[in-house]
Write a structure and sequence with these properties.
Layout: H1 5-17, H2 19-40, E1 45-53, E2 65-76, H3 81-147, H4 153-187, H5 194-200, H6 219-225, H7 227-247, E3 253-264, E4 274-283, H8 291-357, H9 363-397, H10 416-423
Antiparallel strand pairs: 1-2, 2-3, 3-4
Helix pairs in contact: 1-3, 2-3, 3-4, 3-7, 3-9, 4-5, 7-8, 7-10, 8-9
Length: 424
């Protein structure tokens, strides 16, 4: 949307290669494995066994004894311990996926802001170099007029001072540009060097001109688009489900176990005698010193903390939208005002330069006017960068910078009423 091909290429590379995103992908895979582990408890477990033995001693039987068998067990989900564990694991996948999406949203914004900053610094560097060329001319004119006896050496020294001050800003701007380019390199997952070369390879491109966002979605739609809010909601659902897991320990647990086995002195007689058993039982907690109740209290406290975090995330989302919207509007106003100031400064500088060369004004006047011109040019670039940055921040606040199509996880968070039912 900013119309800067270099910025777009940086964003695309960051999505593919950023290391923080790689960490988020690994955590999402970890959450998926946790869900598979929780689901496995819904099914019976089966263990096979086989062995061979032989007695030793004076009265031992010299024959080998072969055995083969299997053990099976299955815990029934009577009071929702396993199903709540599965629900919590599903929610944790959602939370991990949305956290990954939120990392992408933030990183895309950082890449855009840093690239905008680099564009502004590069443009200010070009302004400093072009201003230095004018000041070289001013210094030469001052020397000629001094040699002709028209002005004192004060004009020459003032011209030298002005030129040196402008020249001193160039190394600082070069260092700032390199630092900003290197920050972009880290964000897009590559060693420093190429980004800086791309920024200085051609004439400095202008700071991107963003569109003005004036129409926003309803608050509910903004929250639906923000991955940090949806991650917080998924965390809340997982916390509620964990309460159900903890409470199930207060109720009886039903388990069915069984085994089957056979044995013989040879492989041919191995299946002559088959034995087995099946057992179904209930176990009920009677006393554990309060450990189960403490786990329930801990799960309930964790949910209250998660609920507070969820509410705080919503408030922060609304605050970001309102603040960035104001920043975008004021930044656009600053650009318009600074453009008018620059136009006046350019006219003043042209007149002052012409009058000084004709001997109609002193060098001090020219010095003041040209300093005003340099300041106005830099202020305009800064205001343009602030305007583009405000657009990026507002886009982020509205939930932009990520796409659900890029993630392989379900994008549905349970209704908050479902969360309250699980917690009851």
């Amino acid at each position: 949307m900013l119309g800067d091909p270099l910025l777009s290429s940086f964003v695309e590379q960051a999505i593919m290669q950023n290391r923080d995103l790689a960490v988020g992908v690994a955590r999402l895979d970890q959450a998926r494995a946790g869900l598979r582990l929780a689901r496995a408890r819904l099914f019976p477990s089966l263990d096979g066994r086989a062995g061979v033995s032989r007695d030793v001693g004076d009265f031992a039987d010299d024959d080998f004894q072969f055995t083969i068998g299997a053990d099976a067990s299955w815990e029934l989900d009577l009071f929702g311990q396993i199903s709540n564990d599965v629900a919590a694991s599903r929610a944790e996948i959602l939370a991990a996926g949305y956290a990954l999406a939120d990392i992408q949203r933030l990183i895309v914004g950082q890449v855009a802001v840093q690239t905008i900053t680099a564009r502004a610094i590069a443009e200010q560097l070009a302004i400093a170099r072009s201003t230095l060329a004018f000041q070289d001319d001013n210094l030469q004119v001052a020397r000629w007029r001094n040699q002709a006896g028209l002005v004192s050496s004060l004009d020459v020294e003032q011209a030298r001072t002005q030129r040196a001050q402008t020249a001193a800003t160039i190394p600082l701007l070069e260092a700032n540009l390199a630092a900003t380019a290197n920050a972009v390199s880290v964000l897009i997952g590559e060693p420093p060097g190429r980004v800086l070369a791309a920024l200085v390879a051609t004439e400095p491109a202008p700071v991107p001109l963003p569109p003005l966002l004036t129409q926003y979605e309803a608050p509910a739609e903004v929250l639906e688009r923000r991955p940090d809010v949806r991650a917080a909601q998924a965390d809340l659902f997982a916390s509620a489900a964990r309460i159900g897991v903890a409470r199930a320990d207060l109720f009886p647990a039903a388990r069915i176990t069984g085994s089957i086995g056979t044995g013989g002195t040879s492989f041919g007689s191995l299946f002559d005698l088959i034995t087995g058993n099946l057992f179904a039982g209930l176990s009920q907690l009677i006393f554990d010193g309060g450990r189960t109740v403490a786990r329930i209290d801990s799960a309930e406290a964790a949910m209250r903390a998660t609920l507070a975090s969820y509410e705080q995330t919503i408030l922060r989302a609304f605050e970001e939208v309102e603040t960035t919207a104001v920043n975008q509007r004021t930044a656009a106003e600053r650009v318009a005002i600074t453009e008018e100031a620059l136009d006046a400064a350019e006219n003043s500088a042209f007149l002052a330069r012409s009058q000084y060369e004709a001997g109609l004004t002193d060098f001090q006047t020219l010095l003041v006017v040209e300093n005003q011109l340099l300041s106005a040019r830099n202020q305009l670039v800064g205001a343009q960068a602030d305007r583009a940055t405000a657009f990026v921040r507002l886009t982020q606040a509205l939930g932009g910078g990520w796409s659900s199509a890029e993630y392989d996880f379900p994008l549905s968070v349970p209704d908050p009423r479902q969360i309250s039912r699980i917690a009851e």
